[in-house]
Design goal:
Elements lengths: L8 H16 L5 H11 L5 H9 L2 H11 L13 H8 L1 H13 L5 H5 L5 H21 L4 H10 L2 H9 L1 H14 L3 H9 L3 H11 L4 H9 L13 H14 L22 H8 L3 H18 L1
Helix pairs in contact: 1-13, 2-6, 4-6, 5-6, 6-9, 8-9, 8-15, 8-16, 8-17, 9-15, 10-11, 10-13, 11-12, 13-14, 14-15
Length: 296
C-alpha cells in the first residue's frame, strides 16, 4: 500500500486539499457521527438514542417504516421510537438509525459522474455491515462496532465520488482497461487510494483508531492483516463473503467467483447469520434501506 512518503509533493497537496474539503462538506451527516459515538461510549442510554433520533423528524419516520417492513418480520405494528427500542432493542434501533441516515438519495446525481451506482454502492455497504455484525456476534465481540465499521468502510470512495468524480471515474476506466484493481489505478494516478482518503477523513472526525484502521484496510488481503478477529479483519472477511455472493460496490468488479471462507460454516457464525434470515435476509434488509431513502 502507498504511504505519504510515496507521494509527490503535488499529490500530497491535492490529497490535503481534498481532506479539508470533505471535512467541511461531510459525506456523513452530523447525526451519524453521534450514533457512531454511541457504539464506543457505553454511557449512552435508550433515552439518549431516542432523543438523538427525534432531532430529525424525517429520520424518525424512516426508522419506523423500516421497523415495520417485512424485512424485520415483527408480529405487530410499531408506532413510536420507544416501542421500537423496547421490541427491537437499543442495538438494533441504533443500527437502523445509522443505516437510515447515511443512505442519502440526494447524492445520487452527484456520484453518477464518478461511475458509482448509488443503489449498488449502498447495498454493498449495508450487506458488509450486517456480515461484519454477524462475525462480531459469533466471536463474542461488539456487534455494534462491527455494523458501524461495515457501513462506513467505503466512506472514502463515497467522498471521492462526491468531491472529485472525475478522479474516481478516470481510475475506474484505467483499472478496467488494464485489468487491475481500482486502488492500484488510484495509486498510479493520484498517489493515494480512496481507502486512505477515508481513513484520513475519519481521523479528522475523531473516529476511534480501530474504526480508522477498518476503513483504511478493508481491501487488504487477509494475509496482510494482523488478526482476523480484529475489527479490520472482520470487515475484510465480511467484504470477502459479500464478494463471494457477487455483492460489490459496482466499482471493483468480481472477475471470478470466490469461495466463501470456511469460518462461515462454523456453528456460531452460521447461527448468527441464520438469525438475520441468512444471506437472503441480509440482502432484503439492505434493500429496505434503499426503499426508505427513496421514500424520504
Amino acid at each position: 500500500m502507498t504511504t505519504q512518503h510515496d507521494r509527490t509533493p503535488e499529490q500530497q497537496e491535492a490529497m490535503d486539499d481534498l481532506i479539508r474539503e470533505v471535512k467541511e462538506l461531510r459525506p456523513l451527516p452530523a447525526i451519524a457521527l453521534r450514533l457512531i459515538a454511541m457504539a464506543e461510549d457505553r454511557r449512552f442510554s435508550a433515552q439518549d438514542l431516542a432523543a438523538t433520533i427525534r432531532t430529525d423528524q424525517a429520520l424518525t419516520l424512516r426508522i419506523l417504516r423500516l421497523a415495520n417492513s417485512p424485512a424485520f418480520g415483527l408480529p405487530r405494528r410499531i408506532t413510536s421510537l420507544r416501542e421500537a427500542i423496547v421490541l427491537l432493542g437499543f442495538r438494533e434501533v441504533r443500527s437502523l438509525a445509522l443505516g437510515a441516515c447515511v443512505v442519502d438519495a440526494s447524492v445520487r446525481d452527484r456520484i453518477a459522474g464518478a461511475m458509482l451506482d448509488y443503489e449498488v454502492f449502498w447495498v454493498n455497504s449495508l450487506v458488509v455491515a450486517y456480515f461484519s455484525q454477524v462475525l462480531a456476534d459469533a466471536e463474542g465481540l461488539d456487534r455494534d462496532e462491527g455494523f458501524t465499521a461495515g457501513v462506513v468502510h467505503n466512506v472514502g470512495r463515497l467522498a471521492l465520488a462526491q468531491h472529485r468524480p472525475d478522479w474516481l471515474r478516470d481510475a475506474v476506466m484505467l483499472a478496467r482497461a488494464e485489468g487491475f484493481a481500482v486502488h492500484d489505478a488510484q495509486v498510479h494516478q493520484l498517489g493515494f487510494t480512496d481507502a486512505e482518503l477515508g481513513a484520513a477523513v475519519a481521523r479528522t472526525w475523531s473516529f476511534p483508531p480501530t474504526l480508522v484502521e477498518a476503513v483504511e484496510r478493508h481491501a487488504w488481503p487477509l494475509s496482510q492483516l494482523g488478526k482476523a478477529r480484529d475489527l479490520d479483519g472482520i470487515v475484510a472477511r465480511a467484504r470477502r463473503f459479500a464478494r463471494a455472493h457477487r455483492v460489490t460496490d459496482g466499482v471493483d468488479v468480481v472477475g471470478h467467483t470466490l469461495s466463501p471462507d470456511r469460518d462461515w460454516m462454523l456453528p456460531a457464525t452460521a447461527e448468527a447469520l441464520r438469525r438475520l434470515g441468512g444471506v437472503p435476509g441480509v440482502l432484503q434488509r439492505a434493500r429496505a434501506f434503499l426503499v426508505e431513502a427513496d421514500a424520504a
